[in-house]
Amino acid sequence: MSTTQASAPSMLHRVICPQCWHKFHPEDILWVSEHQDLFGADNRVPNAQMRFLPSRFSPQAEAIDPRGFPCHRLACPNCHLEIPRPMLELQSLVLSVLGSPGSGKSYFLAAMASRLRHVLPMQFFASFTDADASLNVRLKDSERQMYANSNPYEIQELGELIRKTQEVGDEYGYAAVNFGSQSVNYLRPYAFTMQVQQNHPNPERRGTGRVICLYDNAGESFLPGMDKSASPVTRHLAESRVLFFVYDPLQDSRFRCLESDLGEGLIDKSHLGSQEAVFQEAANRIRRYSGLASREKYPRPVIVVVTKCDRWAKLIDGDLMNQSAVVEANKKLSDGSIARLNALDTGLVKSVSAKVRNLLASTTPEIVSAVESFTDHACYIPVSATGAKTHVNPRSGLQAVRPGDLQSFWAEVPFIYSLAISSAGMIPKVSR
User: Fold this and answer.
1) I want to staple 120 with a disulfide (CB 3.0 to 4.6 A). Which of 97, 126, 191, 254 is the partner?
2) Distance (Å, rounded) from C-alpha 80 to C-alpha 178?
């Protein structure tokens, strides 16, 4: 039986590896052996099971490895890194998250993933699950420590709750591949499967699905000279449909001076460097990878995720922290009937974005200038991953919090907004 016959009939015509970006037909996919004698037999991926192109299959359409064991995992024919099976059946949506060290990127990602697992099934009739549990280990651990901590009311340092993105060498974030004598490090994405459920009020949307590939670089990856052929860890930027730029305004002393208590309980991170420079470096790489001219605008959305809004939201709207971006709306279906469903209020998001943009333009104008000289599709969304003020541990000098007090605000909105304005049609939208 051929690989094509063994696979689901709904397979894509072409698959793209989420690590090395190699494009190939599904019948060329490699399988990962199971027999222990074949461990370490692959010359491309060290300390791994052998990859092979099968010639035999079991009655359950599982490839049989050279030692006669049925196999279940798949791998790219170029880099030999594993590929989640849903990527053969569903179109991929590539999203990139970038930000400088200390911007709160890791906290935002944990808060966003945790909220999406709850919000999408309950409010939008869409599942949101791990496409590959091994790819999401680091993120799942952070979600559990922050929002399902076994000691919720014990004061803990924030560094104990989150597994921050590391540079090359993190066993979960990066993978080494040997091409002859050359070793290349690839960034591994977080991978999710999002699919509209069969109980969705709009039958036209039922079954629609995407594989979400979410890329998270360490801030150090955007230092000049860090992206090279032996470590092409930011090449996903050219493939991304939406860029999330995580920006912490409280790192800037000009912003903290707006109110006397904005910096209370926070550690001064101004020494970590310019956040604008990180965005500029990312923008330069996108131009280089995608062939954009120096004066040509980036045609896709850039969402500026402005963190720690629980501290500064009062500067734009005293009631913002009580507002929901998800509202009930009527949707007229193709048969003329009306369905009552939840939708994202893009009018509210854009209104809040304009207020945040004006606040930043009056205090830290260089970040607004950097973003808007790169794209005409910028949106500024306030987010709080914790929703609670942190405290500085007097003994260690590090920030601490009670996990049971954590309650994120709008952490899911940047992702939902990016889908609402896309052509996928998986998130309904209204503009009030």
Assistant:
1) 126
2) 10
Q: Is the pLDDT assigned to residue 389 strictly greater than 70?
A: no
**Closest among 96, 94, 93, 18 to 305, alpha carbons compared:** 96
The residues facing 338 across adjacent strands are: 332
Indicate if the pLDDT at residue 406 is higher than 70: yes
- Pairwise CA distance, residues 402 & 406, whole Å: 7
- Tell me the C-alpha to C-alpha distance, in Å, between residue 311 and each of 101, 237, 386, 432: 20, 31, 11, 27
Neighbouring CB atoms inside 10 A of 2's CB total 10
**Which pair of structure tokens corresponds to residue 138?**
């680091």
Residue 292 has pLDDT above 80, yes or no: yes
All residues at 6 or more sequence positions from 389 whose CB lies less than 8 Å from its CB, including other chains: 264, 265, 310, 311
- Greater model confidence, 5 or 346: 346
Of the candidates 311, 96, 372, the one whose C-alpha atom is nearest the C-alpha of residue 221 is 96
* Token pair listed for 166: 């590391």
The reported pTM is 0.89
The yes-or-no verdict on residue 78 having pLDDT over 60 is yes
Neighbours of 265 (CB within 10 A): 13
CA–CA dist 18, 131 (Å, integer): 12
Phi, psi of 287 (to 5 degrees): -60, -40
Across the range 336-352, mean pLDDT stands at: 90
d(CA 284, CA 296): 12
